[in-house]
Every structure is written in structure tokens, then in C-alpha cells.
Amino acid sequence: MKKNLFNKIIVASCIALTLSTVSVFAATLMSYRGTEIRGKYSVNSFSTNSTQTVKINHSNDSWNNVPSSAQYMQVQVCKKNRVGFYGKTGMQFNASGVGSTTQSYSVAPGTYKLYFHAPVNPAAADISGYVSN
Length: 133
Prior knowledge:
It is a single chain. By secondary structure, the chain is α+β, with helices and mostly antiparallel strands. The chain has one domain (28-132): Jelly Rolls (Sandwich). It is built from 1 helix and 9 strands.
């Protein structure tokens, strides 16, 4: 009887320890910062080995002297192809004015960069942000 109780305590303790060590955390896959950005790929890239959801946290920190109607940045997710070039994936969002925007996407395995485009000439922005999973 004592041995049976002891075994149950051991098993319960092992299960409790195993469950307590499982943790979920968001890892930063890529960060970026740039000044006077009008149309440019991110210098850094990020890669995934499996399909997963990534979160892009983008900030327009300041704009050059353009009216507020011209202050928006298109942020596009681009995937590296077999030849080594980055192409559009159809995943994109607009970030207007000064401030932060967050967007999530499910991406397939591969290597990615972001493309930043301020479509209204001569608008350009100082930007920063990061991609996490």
C-alpha cells in the first residue's frame, strides 16, 4: 500500500514538473530601422521552417514635410524564390501617419523580407519595427 502511494506521488510529481517547464514565448525573428524610407527592402530577413503565424509590429516614427493625406507606408511581405529574388506574397498593410501598427499573417516555410513603399511622391518616413512569432 505504501509502495503504491509512493509510486502515485512520484508519477504526479513528474507530470507536474513536466507541465511547469512548458512555456510559450514570442521570439523576435527580425528587427528593422530606417530613415527617409520611400521604397526599400528591409536589410534583414527572417526564415521559418514550418507554416506559422508571424506578427509585424511597424512604426512610422516621423515624416518629411508632406501633408497628412500623403503620410502612409505600404508594408509588404516578400518571399525569396528559388532564383534568390524576393517577390510579393499578397500580404500587405498600410500604416498611416505617425504611430504603430500591428498585423499578423500565416507564412509558409521560407525566407522573407519586408518591402516598405510610400506611394505618394515625395513622401518618406523614418520607420522602425520588428517581426515576431
